[in-house]
Amino acid sequence: MTDTATPDTSDERVKEMSAFRKALIRPELGGICGTIIVFLFFALFAHDSGMFNSQGVMNWSVVSAQFMIIAVGACLLMIAGEFDLSVGSMIGFAGMMIAIFSVTLSWPVWMAILVTFALCLALGALNGFIVIRTGLPSFIVTLAFLFILRGFTIYFPQTIERKTIIGGVKDAAEGDWLAPIFGGKILTGLFQWLGDNGLIAVFERGTRAGEPVVDGIPMLIVWALMLVVFGHILLTKTRFGNWIFASGGDAQAARYVGVPVNRVKILMFMFTAFCACVFATCQVMEFGSAGADRGLLKEFEAIIAVVIGGALLTGGYGSVIGAALGALIFGVVQQGLFFAGVESSLFRVFLGVLLLLAVILNTYIRRMITGER
Q1: Which residues are bridge partners to 185 per DSSP?
Q2: Other CB atoms within 10 A of residue 342 CB
Q3: What is the dihedral angle through the alpha carbons of 347, 350, 351, 355, rounded to the nearest 10 degrees?
Q4: What DSSP string runs through 143-192?
């Protein structure tokens, strides 16, 4: 009878990672820490300014939702190993197309929105197709589209309307079935009840006396939350999410094991364009107009939010939740500086400093993961 040898589970060649070290390499770490610090800062220095009453919370929530919508698309694309610098121009272009179709050409608003979405998805696919077929860096291809789309956004309204701002979208959207999905509000009854019971502020005089100051949650915020949930589930719970990580981590190795890298990248460019179009549609429905300057610098703000959220610029690593937290930081800081009485131009200084710190932290994390020195 032979004794069965008990396998030795301790192997000196395998280094066990401590719980603290595991926490350090979580992509959301930077976003979580940044969110806590930002909220603590403004809780101390802007608590008497109204930043945390119902109207103040709604203000920075709306701004955060704007960043969040485009950050989700940028996050998934960056994890797949690519960039899209045309996002800001896509926002301006999509909004202008909706206005031209609905106001100038008198199309039904629902048709204008659907055609614009189809057009943006096609442009996103074209971006991805050019990157895949030519082998050019996505930075260069989408930089070219940044200028192309911005040029068309200025040229079309000037040629057709002799101006760069087209209004009248709200009037055109009156009674439309699709417009409220982007420009409406939900839970209006709940907010009226909160106002009636003194839980949130109400107007005390004028034609709106007795109505709550915040009368519902804008669909912009709903879209942001839905996209974050969708992106998180797609990335962490599906096989396609594994393909996204593989495509950005090592595209050639991913191809060897059967990952359709080209299809993944093109679909991510399309999803980024979709997110930009959602942002543009919500913006046009809110303001009732489209301007040629809409979306300026949004591509860089989206990338900064994603980097703050823990994504590596080299691809293959990141988190949608982290990107959402990065967007939340943006919204809170942008509005918090106003409430704290700080010069608003310092917001750009904050973005630059935060980007630099995030890149340094992410580089350190990458070295921890790969064992580089």
Answers
A1: 218
A2: 15
A3: 180
A4: HHHHHHHHHHHHHHHHHHHSSSEEE-HHHHTTT-SSHHHHH-EE-HHHHH
Q: What are phi and psi of 44, to 5 degrees?
A: -80, -40
Mean pLDDT confidence for 45-68: 87
- Domain 27-370, what fold? ABC transporter involved in vitamin B12 uptake, BtuC (1.10.3470)
Q: Which two tokens stand for residue 88?
A: 């800001």
Domain boundaries, the chain: 27-370
Other CB atoms within 10 A of residue 26 CB: 15
Q: Are 288 and 109 in contact (CB under 8 A)?
A: no
Q: Regarding beta strands 185-186 and 217-218, do their DSSP bridges make them parallel or antiparallel, or are they unpaired?
A: antiparallel
Q: What's the Cα-to-Cα distance from 106 to each of 110, 281, 319, rounded to whole Å?
A: 11, 17, 42
Interacting residues of 157 by C-beta distance below 8 A, sequence separation 6+: 96, 99, 100, 163, 164, 165, 166, 290, 292
pLDDT of 199 strictly over 90 = no
| Greatest C-alpha distance within the chain | 96
The b/e string for 317-338 (b: 16+ C-beta within 10 A; e otherwise) is: bbbbbbbbbbbbbbbbbbbbbb
Q: What is the mean pLDDT of residues 340-355?
A: 78
Distances (CA, A) of 291 to 43, 166, 208, 238, 334: 35, 7, 30, 39, 22
Give the C-alpha distances (Å, rounded to integers) separating 348 from 86, 111, 128, 297, 334.
20, 38, 30, 11, 9
Task: Name the least confident of 75-84, 180-189, 191-200, 279-288.
Answer: 191-200
In sequence order, the β-bridge partners of residue 321 are none
The residue among 107 and 18 whose pLDDT is bigger is 107
50, exposed or middle or buried, with CB in 10 Å at 0-12, 13-18, 19+? middle
Confidence of residue 48 (pLDDT cuts 50, 70, 90): confident
User: What is the C-alpha radius of gyration for the chain, rounded to an integer number of angstroms?
Assistant: 23
329 to each of 21, 79, 174, 299, how far by Cα in Å?
Answer: 25, 21, 35, 16
